[in-house]
Specification:
Elements: H1 2-11, E1 23-25, H2 29-33, E2 39-43, H3 47-65, E3 75-78
Parallel strand pairs: 1-2
Antiparallel strand pairs: 2-3
């Protein structure tokens, strides 16, 4: 979705990343091949499905115990051209 937003902003005459920066979630082919290439937060491919399934079962169990559950996934940032570099 971020890639399509990036394309729309560019079509409207804005410069990416000079005017607007974009960061997507889930590194895919579109992110790597977009112009400019999309900075993204990457997640291991098998982990989201496993984590969602585990969260579902944990939630069902926790409802009975009146607790909340959260799923945490290991992620990493892949920096590309869609975000301006901040100079400090």
């Amino acid at each position: 979705m971020a890639v399509f937003m990036l394309q729309g902003v560019r079509a409207a005459g804005f410069k990416v990343p000079d005017d607007v920066s974009f960061v997507g979630y889930d590194d895919d082919t579109y992110a790597r091949e977009s112009i400019p290439a999309l900075t993204t937060v990457a997640v291991e491919q098998s982990r989201p499905g496993e984590a969602r399934a585990q969260k579902f079962f944990d939630d069902a169990s926790n409802i009975l115990r009146h607790r909340s559950a959260r799923a945490r996934l290991p992620v990493h940032l892949i920096e590309r051209e869609s975000v301006a570099t901040i100079k400090r």
